Amino acid sequence: QILTKDAVTTQVDGVVYYRIHSAVSAVANITDVHSATFLLAQTTLRNVLGTQSLAQLLAGREEIAHSIQAILDIAMEQWGIKVARVEIKDVRIPVAMQRAMADEAEAAREARAKVVAAEGEMNASKALQQASMVLAESPAGLQLRYLQTLTNLAAENNSTIVFPLPINMLESLGQKNRGG
């Protein structure tokens, strides 16, 4: 078990592959080569991983393994041992932490979705503002847009539409009839 830099308790399985290249040094310098190698590897793993955050540990397992291999190789050279390879096989985190990380990721996704929706609303409101400015300059264009909207409604819903006419339009029609 290891406590990471960001205070997350993890269980890490690691493997050290080594060979004895000098039997005389191994017998003369240490009582039990295998036990000493195991303890040194375990201690080195804890020391190195204790300086990493959980995210660094999960993302950089290979680099961490190379770092551990270099440290072990230097330390065990005097014992007549050559470290061939170090692998970090498995990193397990508590179930409660997994749930918390999943909740955090979901909240981040929801926050990004809200930002995207808000940006869409902002763009739509800017487009509506520009359209209203164009229509404000042309009353006939506004009435044509109004009629187009009514046509779309009639095509989609196939129902009776009560068509209100703007009062200024009725006034202009009345003036033409009186003058004619």
Automatic annotation (TrEMBL):
Protein name: Podocin
Coiled-coil residue windows: none
Domain Band as annotated: residue spans: 1-105
Domain of life: Eukaryota
Similarity comment text for this entry: Belongs to the band 7/mec-2 family.
Pfam families the record matches: Band_7 (PF01145)
Gene Ontology, cellular component aspect: cytoplasmic side of plasma membrane
InterPro entries: Band-7_stomatin-like, Band_7, Band_7/SPFH_dom_sf, Stomatin_HflK_fam
Role description: Plays a role in the regulation of glomerular permeability, acting probably as a linker between the plasma membrane and the cytoskeleton.
UniProt xrefs under SUPFAM superfamilies: Band 7/SPFH domain (SSF117892)
